[in-house]
Amino acid sequence: MHGSERHEDGATPRVVVGVSGSLGSLAALHRGLAEARRRGAELWPVLAWEPPGGEHGYLRSPCPPLLAAVREAAERRLHEALDAAFGGTDPGVRLRPVVIRGEAGPALVHLADRPDDLLVLGRAGGPLQRRLRRSVPGYCARRADCPVLTVPAPELLHDLTALHRRARLHLPLPAARELAAAKR
């Protein structure tokens, strides 16, 4: 697909990026921006949210003011993630932020519904966290009708996780000089 190419139905190409605010999703936003520029596409950063306790919990005990507060928090989190990713500067492509109610995987697959959309997702959390929660990239790769690009977690995330683990176990933390030498 070339820079300004449009779909046969006249719609602008889209790059849909799953956003959570994690370092992995910020890396996905940067990669999604690069892909949107390359394709001449719109960038759709998407944050999916659910009511506390999930949809079934909300149906058992509805509370509209709480629901409104959770939605507002999701909108705020998406805008904070965009500010963190782009530093308040214009990304240079048309940006269409979307906050959607629903589980992340199904919501992203629902939005990235055209065969020539591109769905970009970050990897976050360690192996244990991925085992405990359903993998959004895995779900999307199996169900999406468009290509799915999974961006690896930034190296900084691995370093921070290792430091956090050492601190939690009360192990000595390496000096900054040792950390820099280990990276070389």
Describe the structure.
By secondary structure, the chain is an alpha/beta fold. Helices cover 49% and strands 14% of the residues. The chain has eight helices and five strands. It has a five-stranded parallel sheet with strand order 3-2-1-4-5, with helices on both faces. Helix 4 (104-111) runs parallel beside helix 6 (136-143). The longest helix has 23 residues, at 64-86. The termini are far apart. Residues 1-8 have low confidence and may be disordered.
Q: What features would you highlight for this structure?
A:
globular; 49% helix; single chain; 5 strands; 14% strand; alpha/beta; 184 residues; 8 helices; disordered N terminus
How are the SSEs ordered, and which strands pair?
Blueprint: E1 14-18, H1 23-39, E2 42-49, H2 54-60, H3 64-86, E3 98-101, H4 104-111, E4 118-122, H5 127-132, H6 136-143, E5 148-151, H7 155-168, H8 176-183
Helix pairs in contact: 1-3, 4-6
